[in-house]
Amino acid sequence: MKTIKDEPATWKRGRRVTVELQPGEQLMAFREDGYYKLGGQVDEIMQGHVITDSYQVMWCSIGQEWTS
User: pTM for this structure?
Assistant: First the structure.
């Protein structure tokens, strides 16, 4: 994802962000004080700030662990 333009919020409208997504990427918006149910087999409820503080990781087959 590449941020093209990030305009601050004004009195009449909210923040306006223009982004460019790579194929296969999705864009989601979260309220930090909101609660969200995770999908798939996890089936847990998380607060928005937990999700926004996350980062992408990869599985290392040599060390058998998640690495960033």
Answer: 0.65
